[in-house]
User: Which sequence fits this backbone?
């Protein structure tokens, strides 16, 4: 049998589906019934509450087949439109506050489904004011008229009930943890006015400390709820997370080669929430330059200890030690350091936020040829810094945020008096926002700004330039995907000198990072399952030195090297700083176009594996735009491209792998 569902003919409430003589779909009574339900829904939303939708099927038979004709009969009835809203029973909230929640304008079509949404909105408003038992009922009355439309008056009847206070709190499910670990994280106390947001924020705070895997907060006595008691006791049921965790994850990067991540932690030591943790990351450093016959194993190792609520105060203490080694295009950077931080969580003032004071020491060594060290103005140094951190985390979920935001900010000052060879002021601010569009579809946008200012070195001969290992780099998995790690920003151009102190008329161009950095990231994310998601992204960013710092570089590079030239060289082997394409943040007000004309940009796709500790990302990025320096615009031979093309596939772009992405 063949259906006839290809077009409508409508006359006086009768719509007829007519056969398409060239293409007959199979007749499907279930599809017809579903289509009729959709028609009813559309009419109901348009205010036709009494609509009737019926079907009639007729058939004709030929020598080869049966043909079906489906007739859909629609009786629309009279249309309901909104007239006005009246309130009764509200004593503690005025009519204007309640009417602001009503989203239907006078004369608009009245959909009964809007009533349920409005009742929930009013109930939530009363609940936020402490009226836990408030109930909302709606009576709809039609005004009789001679027209085909019926104006509707919505009578909102409210029973506020008593204003409720928090009563006693009881905790269940504890195994190793002491009860005080739970109580100290609560944002409410016995006698406070009830507020559901305080319950939600308390639950998030309990989950955030890493001791519990699940937390539920509910009224203790259902009978007290039924009797509309003025004080409700609460029960907090927790499930403790494993106190020992170890995770290991291999990965691969086109820049680093094979990568291995190892993490371990001991949580809830002594039942008080103390934590001992360690993290290690190792990689091949595939892109390194060997020094003599030695090669480097890239690594980042850290251990730490967290003492929450020192001496039962609201201050947390954290001590950490770290050791790292990585290669750049010109040297090996070896770092050892430690940090002490005292932090306080602003539970009542600003839930989800933390402020911390810290002091850190660091010793950095760089291994390379002396000529290379001179080219990058790098050396061994130590620094002591003191600073302030402020963090806000209002994400609804760590592994897959669909709403909320994060703010990470830090100001640090290095001074000789704190120990070390450097003086500077460093500041950083980052902000990520997440917007849910549809189910499982999220738009995310984030930016990060960092800068060093007032840099001084103890040795006056060092031209007061930020040491190479401290410079801010961009490009790679955590910044601008599609470009190699740490490949963007200013370039040091140095002559290639042979062992016989002879110049072959060629130069080597190596990125050196800068004292300022801006990164902008946008993503459109879709979650397919609870553990797998994909995303499309556009990244933008760059690093640079200030104009004053560029002048200091040029002064340091002012003397040509005394080397022999190869035959035919008609230029000098002079060190130089290239592609310092930067701008001040204040300039963006007058020139917002700098964000794309002076930044490197890329786009691409990523596969995301969602875990409780964050996302593991495998991304492929493609370069989109490279800014040009003035020298490059005037002379193509002076352009230094950062785009790398795969020798095998002839495709430009980079594959990136990172674990526990912050964005």
Assistant:
């Amino acid at each position: 049998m063949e259906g006839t569902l290809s077009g409508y003919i409508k006359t006086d409430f009768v719509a007829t589906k007519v056969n398409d003589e060239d293409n007959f779909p199979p007749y499907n009574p279930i599809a017809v019934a579903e289509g009729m339900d959709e028609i009813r829904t559309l009419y109901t939303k348009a205010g036709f509450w009494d609509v009737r939708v019926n079907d009639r099927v007729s058939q004709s038979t030929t020598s080869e087949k049966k043909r079906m004709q489906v007739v859909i009969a629609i009786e629309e009835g009279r249309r309901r439109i909104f007239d006005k809203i009246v309130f009764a029973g509200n004593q503690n909230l005025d009519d204007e506050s309640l009417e602001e929640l009503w989203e239907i304008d006078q004369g608009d079509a009245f959909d009964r489904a809007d009533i349920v949404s409005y009742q929930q909105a009013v109930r939530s408003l009363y609940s936020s004011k402490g009226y836990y038992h408030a109930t909302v009922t709606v009576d709809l009355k039609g005004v009789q008229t001679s027209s085909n439309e019926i104006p509707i008056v919505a009578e909102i009847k409210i029973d506020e009930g008593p204003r409720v206070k928090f009563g006693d709190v009881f905790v269940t499910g504890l195994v190793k943890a002491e009860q005080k670990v739970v109580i100290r994280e609560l944002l409410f106390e016995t006698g406070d006015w009830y507020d559901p947001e305080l319950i939600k924020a308390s639950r998030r705070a309990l989950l955030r400390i890493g001791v519990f895997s699940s937390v539920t907060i509910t009224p203790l006595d259902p009978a007290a709820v039924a009797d509309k008691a003025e004080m409700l006791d609460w029960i907090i049921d927790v499930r403790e997370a494993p106190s020992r965790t170890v995770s290991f994850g291999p990965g691969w990067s086109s820049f680093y080669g094979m990568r291995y991540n190892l993490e371990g932690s001991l949580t809830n030591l002594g039942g008080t929430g103390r934590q001992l943790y360690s993290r290690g990351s190792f990689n091949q450093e595939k892109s390194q330059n060997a020094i003599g016959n030695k090669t480097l194993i890239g690594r980042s190792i850290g251990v730490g200890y967290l003492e929450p609520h020192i001496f039962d105060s609201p201050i947390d203490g954290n001590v950490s030690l770290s050791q790292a080694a990585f290669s750049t295009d010109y040297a090996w950077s070896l770092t050892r350091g430690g940090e002490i931080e005292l932090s306080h969580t602003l539970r009542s003032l600003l839930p989800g936020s933390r402020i911390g004071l810290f002091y850190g020491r660091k010793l950095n060594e760089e291994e390379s040829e002396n000529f290379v060290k001179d080219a990058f103005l790098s050396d061994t140094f130590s620094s002591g810094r003191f600073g302030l951190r402020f963090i806000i985390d209002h994400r609804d979920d760590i592994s897959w945020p669909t709403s909320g935001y994060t703010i990470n900010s830090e100001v640090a000052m290095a001074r000789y008096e704190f120990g070390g060879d450097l003086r500077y002021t460093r500041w950083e601010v980052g902000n990520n926002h997440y917007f849910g569009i549809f189910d499982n579809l999220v738009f995310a946008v984030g930016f990060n700004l960092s800068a060093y200012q007032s840099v001084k070195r103890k040795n006056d001969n060092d031209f007061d330039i930020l040491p190479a290992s401290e410079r801010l780099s961009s490009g790679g998995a955590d910044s601008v995907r599609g470009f190699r790690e740490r490949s963007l920003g200013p370039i040091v151009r140095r002559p290639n000198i042979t062992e016989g102190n002879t110049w072959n008329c060629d130069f080597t161009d190596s990125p050196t990072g800068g004292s300022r950095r801006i990164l902008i990231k946008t993503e459109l994310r879709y979650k397919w399952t609870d553990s797998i998601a994909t995303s499309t992204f556009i990244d933008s960013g760059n690093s640079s030195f200030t104009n004053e710092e560029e002048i200091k570089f040029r002064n340091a590079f002012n003397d040509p090297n005394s080397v022999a030239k190869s035959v035919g060289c008609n230029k000098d082997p002079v060190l130089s700083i290239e592609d310092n394409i930067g701008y001040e943040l204040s300039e963006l007000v007058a020139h917002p176009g700098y964000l794309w004309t002076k930044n490197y940009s890329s786009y691409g796709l990523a596969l995301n594996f969602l875990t409780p500790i964050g996302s593991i990302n495998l991304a492929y990025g493609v370069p989109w735009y490279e800014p040009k320096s003035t020298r490059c615009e005037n002379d193509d031979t002076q352009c230094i491209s950062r785009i790398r093309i795969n020798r095998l596939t002839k495709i430009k772009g980079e594959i990136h792998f990172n674990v526990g992405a912050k964005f």
User: Anything to note?
Assistant: The chain has a mean pLDDT of 85. The two ends are 55 Å apart (CA to CA).
